[in-house]
Design a protein that fits this description.
Layout (H helix, E strand, L loop, with lengths): L9 H10 L8 E7 L5 E2 L16 H7 L5 E6 L5 E9 L4 E8 H52 L14 H39 L1
Antiparallel strand pairs: 1-2, 1-5, 3-4, 4-5
Length: about 210
């Protein structure tokens, strides 16, 4: 019965509806009832100025008919696509419709998607630079090792490969330097023995 509205504090109800808590910039809650003549009336001022209050929306007609459902891609009075929810307050015979523009509903998921894409691309770029840095370091280290092998191959036994790193490549370079040192000692020992034997042979020939 429409007279049931009289027991409601209209000013308080108006403040609650127009506050539109949680409905963002485009959302609103609309209340309506049918008078004794069957006309749809709005007891509370709407959040947005509606120049076509006589054109009752489909969600509101469904709400006044007691249908509680969700409407997707429904056009509001501004001809903007919106999502609307209809409900019926049986105690006061009120139809209630809450709606919000599609664009505003999708704003949060889109923002989240953009953020995730940004994180993904940042990770890819970071991975690329880290890979390049590691590859460059390994390539430079192997080049030094190759150069050291060539120098020793030319007989430069004093050549040392300089590397301060403590990783596996650093250990390899230190092992290479140690090997070069040991080879140099062995070569020196061989040269000494050859020199001694040569000296002994020369002395025997002089006798």
């Amino acid at each position: 019965m429409a007279l049931g509205i009289s027991v409601v504090n209209i000013d308080k109800l108006s403040q609650i509806i127009q506050s539109a808590i949680g409905l963002g910039k485009t959302g609103e809650v609309v209340l309506a009832f049918r008078n004794e003549a069957g006309e749809v009336k709005y007891p509370v001022a709407r959040r947005f100025d509606d120049q076509s209050l006589d054109a009752v929306s489909v969600p509101m007609l469904q709400a006044l008919a007691g249908v509680e459902t969700v409407f997707f891609n429904i056009f509001d009075y501004r001809q903007q696509k919106a999502v609307a929810v209809s409900s019926y307050v049986d105690d006061f015979e009120l139809g209630l419709v809450a709606k919000i523009d599609n664009r505003e509903i999708m704003a949060a998921p889109i923002a989240l998607l953009v953020f995730l894409i940004f994180i993904f691309l940042t990770s890819v770029v970071f991975y690329f630079f880290i890979t390049q840095w590691i590859t460059q370091g390994v390539t430079e280290s192997l080049s030094k090792l190759s150069l050291g092998a060539k120098e020793i191959g030319r007989g430069n036994w004093d050549y040392r490969v300089g590397l301060k790193d403590r990783d596996e490549i650093g250990e390899l370079f230190r092992a290479f330097n140690q090997m070069s040192k040991e080879v140099r000692k062995s070569r020196a020992e061989v040269d000494r023995q050859v020199a001694e034997q040569t000296k002994e042979i020369q002395q025997k020939i002089k006798r």
